[in-house]
Amino acid sequence: MKYMSDQMLIEVYHRAIDLQLDAAFIELLSLELKHRNISITKASA
């Protein structure tokens, strides 16, 4: 994931949640966001 831009990572994270992808994959993305010190606020549906 080190080749993925911050913006792309954020987009993939939101898309994974929207598509209800595997929880382990979403957790992996979440850990990478934390590693990069990127804070994500959950949008209200």
Task: Supply database-style keywords.
45 residues, mainly alpha, Helix Hairpins, Sporulation inhibitor A, Sda_sf, Sda
Task: Please tell me about this protein's structure.
The protein is globular and about 25 Å long. It has 45 residues and is an all-alpha fold. It has helices at 6-18, 23-35. It contains two helices and no strands. The relative contact order is 0.20. Helix 1 packs antiparallel against helix 2 (23-35). It has one domain (1-45): Sporulation inhibitor A (Helix Hairpins, Orthogonal Bundle), CATH 1.10.287.
Short précis:
This protein is mostly helical.
Helix content: 55-70%
Report the CATH architecture.
Orthogonal Bundle
From the spread of the alpha carbons, the general shape counts as: globular
Domains (count): 1
Give, in order, the helices and strands: HH
Number of strands: 0
Rounded mean pLDDT is 91
The CATH superfamily appears as Sporulation inhibitor A
Structural class: mainly alpha
Biggest beta-sheet profile: none
Strand content: under 5%
The CATH class: Mainly Alpha
Pfam families: Sda
Organism: Brevibacillus panacihumi W25
Protein name: Sporulation inhibitor A
InterPro entries: Sda, Sda_sf
